[in-house]
């Protein structure tokens, strides 16, 4: 009887070890899944801001400034805080308003991106002004544009946009 009890304890101990190992494996799997889900959520949050319909007008020889236009949307709301391009010494945000018969242009420090709304940057409106162009903008080519966006918590991220140079706005931009 004592042998039987010892054998039973031994079997129970082995079963307990296997069950414990399975439970630990299941726990690790659950933790890993949660971590991956968290990373996926972070990746989705990084895709909160989208830029579409980007384009720039060609310039002529000797012209030192140009304009870039695009649609930008933030699902949660953000602020466009900075623009840069290898094609120009500097890039500024500008707005244009009509004052009677006169169009007035002024530099904007930032551009609010309201949650879920598309903000249009277009000729004769808000646009990216490329200053001190390094070379003329030629139709059929493209330039890089780097946008820095800050979310409501002040976290910044950078978006890289390739801006095609064309004589007219893309169809999706001409609303």
Uncertain segments are: 27-46
The coarse overall form would be: elongated
Amount of beta strand: 35-45%
Give the terminus-to-terminus CA distance: 90 Å
The whole-number mean of residue pLDDT values reads: 82
CATH hierarchy: architecture of the largest domain: Sandwich
Order of helices and strands: HEEEEEEEEEE
Helix content: 25-40%
Please compute the radius of gyration using only Cα atoms. 28 Å
Supply the number of structural domains: 2
Give the structural class: alpha+beta
Please, what is the CATH homologous superfamily of the largest domain?
PCu(A)C copper chaperone
Task: Give a summary of the structure in a few sentences.
By secondary structure, the protein is an alpha+beta fold. It has 1 helix and 10 strands; from the N terminus they run αββββββββββ.
